Amino acid sequence: MEDNQFVTDLSKFIAIETVSSNLITGKIYEPLAQNVKAIKDYFEQRDYTALFEKVGDQHLIRFGLTPTQTRRAPKPIINIILLLATIFTTLLVGSLNRGGNPFVHFKDLFLGIPFSLSIILILGSHELGHYLVARRYGVDASLPYFLPVPHPLVGTMGAFIRIKSIIPNRNALIKVGAAGPIVGFIVAIPITILGLRFSTLKAITETKEGISLGSSILFNLLSRIFFANIPEGYDLLLHPAAFAGWLGFFVTALNLIPVGQFDGGHIAYAVLGKYRRFLTIIVVALMVILGFSWPGWFFWAVLAILLGLRHPKPQDDITPLGTKEKILALIALLILILTFMPVPIPITGG
Fold first, then answer.
1. CA–CA distance from 318 to each of 57, 171, 198, 214, 274 (Å)?
2. What pTM value is reported for the model?
3. What is the CA 305 to chain-centroid distance, rounded?
4. More confident residue, 323 or 228
């Protein structure tokens, strides 16, 4: 770019203080969002990418040539294989947990349909929520990758999507981050209600081989609709769909923990910016403390650290959140409160 023309053009949008080879400092005029977009478009038209941040009272614009990317048409073969494998592992686990044995009688595999269908719908809707909103904002995102794991309780470690390009701004970041948990939560509610409708009470002496489950505020409230009073000596035996709903709430709460690269971490960054680091320390410390009641929290604390406690900045890190995005953050916080379980699987002494 020719420096003189470059400064003249951008002076319509920003009071320039300094210009170096790849950095502009100054104060972007109001309306801020409109002028940020104009500057971004100006650079894009010249095959440059501009990154916006605020330091003190100054706006910084870093820019460089946009890397040449060859976009290949997505080949969902891996996604399909992993989905089919996850359907199989969840069918297998669902069947075994209902007393079937597909290794001996293959038709017993169909006993796992209620659990498999329910958990696939919940996990799939969660990831599709991320995917569709990401694409809505022009973010290059992959289709969901399911994780088939022959875990004897769940048969899967969930699913994820890959974000392959920078998030345009904090408003988009909060929408992409919140979309998955909110959509998955909405799908989990009717599945849970339907599953509870077909759940039964069993004498504790008949459920010795089962496991005890913790309960979130919401799961407890929904359970009371069908089982207001559980007689002494009896326990609630969850239908596979209700168990999938319980898992859906648990997964939702895990994802909304405001730390690292979790969905809640994206939302926390969008809302708090650099102050998020203090919340991160508190949340990791709480996870470690909770680990003494349920060791699984140790695993999730370590995973959060391994995935990275720092958060990549969006392209535009200066435009403030809109009212709708703030409401979305509050909705996500409410869902976290309703679905969080301090002790998901109580440890019973023997």
1. 11, 10, 51, 41, 12
2. 0.92
3. 16
4. 323
Look-up of token digits 């505020």: 217
Q: Residues for the chain: how many in total?
A: 350
190 conformational bin, left if phi > 0, alpha if psi -120 to 50, beta if neither? alpha
pLDDT score of 216 more than 70: yes
Collapsed DSSP state (helix, strand, coil) of residue 259: coil
Q: For strand 200-203 and strand 58-65, is the pairing parallel, antiparallel, or unpaired?
A: unpaired
The pLDDT score that the predictor gives to residue 208 is 59
Nearest to 35 by CA among 55, 56, 59, 18: 59
- For 18-42, the pLDDT digits (tens) are 988 889 999 999 999 999 999 999 9
Could you give the angle at the alpha carbon of 62 between the alpha carbons of 58 and 67, nearest 5°? 160
Query: How far is 16 from 8, CA to CA, in rounded Å?
Result: 10
Q: What ranges do the domains of the chain cover? A: 3-65, 77-339
- How far apart, in whole angstroms, are the C-alpha atoms of residue 171 and residue 329? 10
pLDDT, tens digit, 9 for 90 and up, residues 253-291: 999 999 988 999 999 999 998 888 899 999 999 999 999
Across the range 198-214, mean pLDDT stands at 79
Name the strands in the sheet holding 58-65, side by side, starting at the edge strand that comes first in the sequence: 14-19, 23-28, 58-65, 48-55
- Report how far residue 182's alpha carbon sits from residue 177's, in angstroms, rounded to the nearest whole number: 9
Amino acid at 69: Q
- Could you give the count of Cα atoms lying within 13 Å of 41 in the half-sphere of its Cβ? 7
pLDDT exceeds cutoff 90 at 5: no
Residue 151 has what pLDDT?
A: 82
Residue of 126, 172, 118 whose CA lies nearest to 145: 126
Pick the CATH number of 3-65 from 2.40.160, 3.90.1070, 3.90.320, 1.10.1740: 3.90.1070
* Parallel, antiparallel or unpaired: strands 58-65 and 156-160: unpaired
The CA radius of gyration of the chain, in Å to the nearest whole number, is 24
